[in-house]
Amino acid sequence: MSLWTRLLCACRRRSPWIFHMNSGSCNGCDIELIASLTPRYDAEQLGVLLQGSPRHADILCVTGPVTQTAAPAIHTVYEQVCGPKAVVAIGSCPASTNVFIDSRVLVGPLDKHIPVDVYVPGCPPRPDAIVRGIAAAANILAERRDKTATESPVTSIANPEGARP
Amino acid sequence: MNLLTALARFFIFPGLLFAIPAAWLVLWIERKSVALLQQRIGPPFGQPFFDFVKLIGKSTPARPGVNGILMRAWPLIAVSASAGAVGLLPVLPTHGGFQGDLILLLALMEIPAICMIVAGFSSRSLFGEIGSAREAVLLVSYNLVFLLAAVSIAVSQHSFRLEALASATATPWRYLGLIAILICLPAKLHVNPFSLPNAEQEIYSGPMVEYAGFELALWQLSHGLEWIAGVGLVVTLAIPPSAHLWLDVAGVLFLGLLLVLAISIIAAATARLAIDTTVRFYWQCTLAFAVLAISTTLLMRLRS
Lengths: 165, 304
Prior knowledge:
- With 165 residues, chain A is an alpha/beta fold.
- Chain A is 32% helix and 14% strand.
- In chain A, helix 2 links the parallel strand 1 and strand 2.
- Chain A starts with a helix and ends in a 9-residue tail after the last strand.
- Chain B is mainly alpha-helical.
- Chain B has one domain (3-303).
- Helices cover 74% and strands 0% of the residues of chain B.
- Chain B is built from 12 helices and no strands.
- Chain B has helices spanning 3-11, 16-37, 47-56, 65-87, 101-123, 126-156, 162-167, 172-188, 200-203, 213-238, 245-269, 275-303.
- In chain B, helix 2 (16-37) packs across helix 10, helix 6 packs antiparallel against helix 8 (172-188) and helix 8 (172-188) runs antiparallel to helix 12.
- Classes of the chains: A alpha/beta (165), B mainly alpha (304).
- Chains A and B meet through helix 1 of A and helix 3 of B.
């Protein structure tokens, strides 16, 4: 590995910028994601910045069980994030559609639509678990060599073997 | 100044080689002071450098056509203009310089803002266009005060040459002009309470909304260099030259750090003003200040 690649990987690990996307969430996970940026949990220590534009982001944080209305938006936003990129599914909803499983307006779970790198289970997950999930996604980003990777290994925080929570 | 010294000043000191790390340091101080005021730990040292390298390694979206070429050109022009402005700062004891370099410095400090306006319009994003329109209004409102204050400083010393201004002993009238420039700096740097063009809660990041990767890294660098140029201009004009070089260096560094901290703390402690309040602030309150500065200097000149 050349010196430039090593520097680039270290910088990717230290500067994950996130974009928050709600795909029909009940707002529980959204509040917890914001709580992870507040003074008590302070995700900026890891270089995490919440960005307003998906073009600026490295990590797409998705909450909610993908609804019919949200599915096209998820595809659009995923394509707008420039590579290399990672996706963090926050909460049980994007992982398994949770209690909404038989709803007729859902087209989830999330990994039917875009490749998911890290699952953070919980309903809602605690802010420290979310920070840990973002850090895990930043590590995945740092190890990803190519610029526009679409295929990605699935890992979970709870089960590092990759089983769905 | 001949070509060789001009190039050395642009590339080495106080130009790119010195100014880029200094810009990263200023951006870090800006973020860290906000974090400390909010009782957070904040980003680690060198965070703007990590962001810069990471952004260089990211891909950028394909931009076909003339519009795409223009969009790629604006951040480059902004960075080179602000680096040129830093290179003109009269920080060295034997500065050289030329008659009228204050005018060139002021012009170069305007170019990044103008690039930002056209970049927002070339991105053809709705948020970019709103941000650009706001930036244009902001530019019109603060620039009158800024230019009047700069002219008053130049008139008080009968010179538009930066070296002459920096080496002359400062009059009380000059400090009036410098305070007017200081009030304009937050608007020039788009920090709170004048962060209208890149208001991230309302219009995402304004003109920057479509930029990614290397281009965004250049915009951030240009923002840092604007900090150095703006603060550097005030500091070099405010510190009177003394007999000892190290005293000058220490004074410039100390006052520069103090100004960066003060602007960051004001930014952390205030909320964003609406566009009409901003324009009213500059046209009513500080315009009086600038007019006072220039009229007193003209009067003093007539008397002497």
